[in-house]
Amino acid sequence: MDTFLASIKPRLKAEPSAPVILVSGNESADLDSIVSAVTTSYFLSRLQQSVLGQSNAIVIPFVNIDRQDLALRSDVDYLLSSSNIKTDDIFFRDQLPQLESILMRNPDQLSLFLVDHNRLAIGMSSLSAAKVVGTIDHHVDEGLHMDTAKIRRIETVGSCASLVADLFLNDTIALDQKDTSGKGKGKGQPDWLRQSARLLLGPILIDTRNLNPEFKKVTPLDIKIAKQLMPYTGDSNCFTSLFTTIDEARQDTSKLSFYDLLRKDYKEWSVNQTIQGESVLFGISSVNGVIDDFVKRDGKEVIQQAMSKWASKRGVQLLMVLFGHDFGAENGGYQRQIIVDPHSKGLQGFSAQLESVTELKLKRTTVVDTDDFVKRGGKAYKQQDTSFSRKQIAPIVEKLLGSSDSKKSNM
After folding, report:
1. CATH code for position 328
2. What's the rounded mean pLDDT across residues 375-398?
3. Per-residue pLDDT tens for 32-52?
4. Same domain, yes or no, for 380 and 332?
5. Element of type H or E holding 132
6. Is residue 308 one of the residues assigned to a domain?
7. Per-residue b/e over 165-190, b at no fewer than 16 CB within 10 Å?
8. Which of 62, 146, 175, 401 is the most buried (most CB within 10 A)?
9. Residue 364 phi/psi, 5° resolution?
10. What is the value of pTM for the model shown?
11. What CATH number did the domain enclosing 84 receive?
12. Where in this chain does the entry annotate a coiled-coil region (predicted)?
C-alpha cells in the first residue's frame, strides 16, 4: 500500500492526461470515512479493470477536511500511523483546487467514487460536473447515480468499512495470489494485506462498539468481516485490545477546545423549507463526552460562545450537538445528550418539535442554560434511548424541518 500511495503525486505530474478517480469520504471525516477512502483507493488501483472497466487510472484517496484538521482526530492519527500509512501521500481538502483544475481542463478526465455517503457533499459542489462511478455507503439510500455508478452498494450495516472489505478484499487477495503464487496467513502476509486488514478492522470495531449487540449497530456482515480480517493483521490479540486502544485515543479530548470539538466531527444538511426566503441549513456536531463535564471544564459561557462562533462560521440556522460516552456497565453504561441551539427566529420553537419525537425519550436538563441561550430557543436534553446516533437523528431533524426531498451534504 505504501508504494501505491507514494506513486500518486509523481503520476499526476508525469501523466497529466491520465484518467483520475477520486475516492472521497464524507465531510465528517471520521475514522470509518477516512479508512474507507484509503482502502477503497488501494483496492480500485488493483481491480479497476475488472470492477470499473478502466485501466491505468490514477486513483486518489480524498479526505474531506483541511490537512491541519487531521490533528483533531486522534483515533485516525493513531490507526494510520500504527498501520504505517503516511498521510503526506493522501489528498485533503486543501488540494481541491488541483482537482478542480483537472475537471476544468477536461470534464471527462475526473470521476468520483463516494464512500460513506451517497450524495456529493455541499463542500464538494465544485466537482459536481464529474461523473460518480461508484458508491459504497451505510446511510439512507437517496437513489442517486443509478445510471453512472458501476459499483453501487448501499446497505445498513455498522460500518462502511465492512462493505468495502466485503466487496474488494477477497478479489484482491486472489489477484495477489495469482501474481505471487500465494502465501500463508499471519506474519507471512504481504504488507498491503496486513495494513488493509488492520485499517478496516479499526472502524468496524469502533462503530459497533466492539461488535456489541447492545448498541444495536452491529450486523451479521460486520461480525463476519471482522472475523475474516483479524488473522490477516498479524496481531494475536483479540478484538478488545485493538478496540480499546483506538477508543482511548478517540476519547482523549483533553487537549482540544470545545470549539475544536464542534468542528472535529461535523455534518451539515440543507433542507427545502423556506424561512425568510432561504433554505434551512443545519449542522450536527458529535462530541465524545457529556455536557456536565465540559461545563465543569470550560463553563457555560465558553460552550455557548463556541457554538455561536461555529454556527456563524458555517452559516447554519440550527446547530445541534450530540454527546455520547461509555462509562462502563458499573457506572451507568453508554449515555447520550443533545444540545439544540437555534440561530434563527423562525426556529426558536424547534426544540418543542424535537421533544414530540417520543422514540428519543428526551429528558430536559438545564446544565448548560443561560438567559440568552434559552431566549433564542436553546435547550439541552438527556437522550434516554441511546440507540439513536446522528445517523438516525439527522433524518428525523430533516423531516421536522422540511420536505422529504431535501438536499443534503451527506457528510
Report:
1. 3.10.310.20
2. 94
3. 999 999 999 999 999 999 999
4. yes
5. strand 131-137
6. yes
7. bbbbbeebbeebeeeeeeeeeeeebe
8. 62
9. -60, 140
10. 0.78
11. 3.90.1640.10
12. none
